[in-house]
Amino acid sequence: MSNPYLALVEAHNALLQKTDAPLFANLDTLGHSPKPVLAADAPVVMIFAPHPDDECIIGALPLRLGREAGFRVMNVAVSQGSSLKRQPERWVEVKNACDYLGWDLLETIPGGLMDVNCKTRDNNPSAWAEKVAVIRQLIEQYQPQVVVFPHNNDYHSAHIGTHYLLMDALKAAQHACTVVQSEFWRQMEAPNALIATSQQDTADLIAALACHVEEVRRNPYHLRLTGWMADNVRRGAEVCGGQGAAAPTFSFGTIYHISRFDGQQLLATDKKFTLSESDEIQAIFA
To answer: How far apart are the first and last CA of the chain?
Structure first.
């Protein structure tokens, strides 16, 4: 008897090895996904992306808040990458990605912030204070109800630096809001939310990621996003749903930690969420 799973593995491998998967240097061939009609006083969710492309990878929850709950999604490009030569190109790429998803795009400073890491925070307090002031001004200007940024052990120095940059800025602004911590390079120790995305939403995040042409040409991680999101469902079933919990029936999800910042500190929470595609996304505020 031949192994019945060989065909499944071969099909998956063929998808990962695709050399003709389209990339989108402009939106002429891709177009735009439908942009929600927002109220003038629509609540704001702000993504603070360490690099251009992170907004697509960690953007499942903001995408659903925008499409299902009428939130204005604002992506803050904290940096525009460490390569000065590539920064103008990366700005075009992230603009295309945000335009496709119907999100607003904000720049921190021209060219983006540099050296957003704990080394700067620890050894150059004046330079760090300037960066914190930039983020504080954005928070005070747009008054987000939700902020999304990496957790404090997400491996990459810029991801970890972005975490502490946001925590310092939230404290400086004394801004109460829902804080959503994301993971990508390293898993969180205690996440509490598994958020499903529909096939359409998942495909839209991949298409937006394919707007970051040179990044995914170097490393085609857009083709692996579904694999990562499927594994999130496997892991999230237990770590977010509880040991021995029934496995979710949806295929794709993103793991977060959701808590409340009261203007001074993050509040401890024992709440856990597993939200399917059909669940009300605003349940995260319950």
So the answer is: 52
Confidence at residue 250, expressed as pLDDT on a 0 to 100 scale: 96
Q: Is residue 240 within 8 Å of 273, Cβ to Cβ?
A: yes
Residues of the chain with pLDDT under 50: none
Please state whether the predicted TM-score (pTM) of the whole model is above 0.85.
Answer: yes
Question: What's the pLDDT at 16?
Answer: 87
CA-based max dimension of the chain: 69
Which residues have a Cβ under 8 Å from the Cβ of 216 and sit 6 or more positions away? 23, 53, 209, 210, 222
Tens of pLDDT, residue by residue over 18-64, are 888 899 988 888 876 667 789 989 999 999 999 999 999 999 999 99
Based on its alpha-carbon atoms, the radius of gyration of the chain, rounded to whole angstroms, reads 19
Helix axes 199-209, 60-69, angle to 10 degrees: 120
- Structural contact between residues 206 and 222, judged by C-beta atoms closer than 8 angstroms: yes
Exposed, middle or buried, 209 (CB in 10 Å: 0-12/13-18/19+)? buried
Looking only at the bridges linking them, the beta strands covering 266-267 and 253-262 are antiparallel
- Complete DSSP assignment for 194-253: EEE--HHHHHHHHHHHTTSHHHHHHS-GGGGHHHHHHHHHHHHHHHTT-TTPPPPS-S-E
Characterise 172 by phi-psi region: left (phi > 0), alpha (psi -120 to 50), beta (else): alpha
Per residue in 268-284, pLDDT (tens digit) is 999 999 999 999 999 99
Token couple for 205: 């995040």
Integer Cα distance of 144 and 45 in angstroms: 5
Query: Angle formed by the axes of helices 125-142 and 157-173, to 10°?
Result: 60
